[in-house]
């Protein structure tokens, strides 16, 4: 195939549209460079690095408008490590999972494979469709679902599940008075655990509706891998302590109690990725300075709306998610007409400096997947549509 040349005037100022790792702004790299040599390459047990951790924790609490008593904990590894940590340290006996994409399915699988837990309830949906947890089940002590599915571009509402819950104080008292980790618990102290890997920092939500809101920082926070973060409620803290004291064997690297104790000291169990923390710290400052979650949410919504409106008028492009209410505003998935090879479209874009628009590797669809994370300029998203049109026209010629 002859190489397709996109006119320079059509190209976006930054061609990174990947769903993680994501675009990193130049100001973040400048801040990272400013930490050499006082922070980079120094002990994570000393104040320079611990102050960086504290800054990230404080800014996350501010950005999320966290209710009183909520904390930010962090640990080594990414979302996959957190799923195993949650299985060991959060689920008392039985969980319920809404599974409508790769991340929700993996957490559900981790819970199903744990020999010390009862079989979870798993509510599934076909790729591109939405599934929700169900309430009023006294055998469930954790309700888990993704805020946004990175693999399929399906977005959910953040809401609390469980019954007989009135206040956070009630929930904390219930958790503190609960029985052993293997005992059955009423739904009154069930935790709502939300995977926010591609949502955090880009989608507005009410923090009082969740007990655990966990994520990796390489999406809207425009950082790198190696760490997970979680906003946790007092009830979640109480549950972590309860399970830790239940006699269940929990590997130290998967113990949320260990992560909590270290996080309160502004550190992690093992050496953290300081570069990841630095990039995230500067991104947080930029988001908060620009208007906080209201700014981030409106910016990602603007970018997503550009793509969905363009697709609605297109003869060769169709939004993958049919339900408008659950179309993601941070990960836009677009089916390409079968007579056009979407992989060739992404290849041509990549040759012109526009990268990571390929479909999710395990989904196997003829589609484009485009991130509209907070760092991505809506003006560049608009230019991207013109670039895709140029490639489509060239392929059809």
Entry summary:
The protein has helices spanning 26-34, 47-63, 79-89, 102-113, 168-176, 234-244, 256-263, 274-290, 292-312, 342-351, 378-396; strands at 71-76, 95-99, 121-124, 142-146, 148-149, 154-155, 191-195, 212-215, 227-232, 317-319, 331-336, 367-371. By secondary structure, it is α/β, with parallel strands linked by helices. It has two domains: 26-287, Type I PLP-dependent aspartate aminotransferase-like (Major domain) (Aspartate Aminotransferase, domain 2, 3-Layer(aba) Sandwich), CATH 3.40.640.10; 292-396, Alpha-Beta Complex (Aspartate Aminotransferase, domain 1), CATH 3.90.1150.10.
Question: Could you characterize what this model shows?
Answer:
- There is one protein chain.
- The protein is α/β, with parallel strands linked by helices and 397 residues long.
- The protein has two domains: 26-287, Aspartate Aminotransferase, domain 2, CATH 3.40.640.10; 292-396, Aspartate Aminotransferase, domain 1.
- The protein has eleven helices and twelve strands.
- It has helices at residues 26-34, 47-63, 79-89, 102-113, 168-176, 234-244, 256-263, 274-290, 292-312, 342-351, 378-396, and strands at residues 71-76, 95-99, 121-124, 142-146, 148-149, 154-155, 191-195, 212-215, 227-232, 317-319, 331-336, 367-371.
- Strands 1-9-8-7-4-2-3 form a seven-stranded mixed beta sheet, sandwiched between helices. A three-stranded antiparallel beta sheet has the order 10-11-12. Strands 5-6 form a two-stranded antiparallel sheet.
- α1 (26-34) crosses α8 (274-290) and α8 packs across α9.
- The longest helix is centred in the C-terminal third of the chain and has 21 residues, at 292-312.
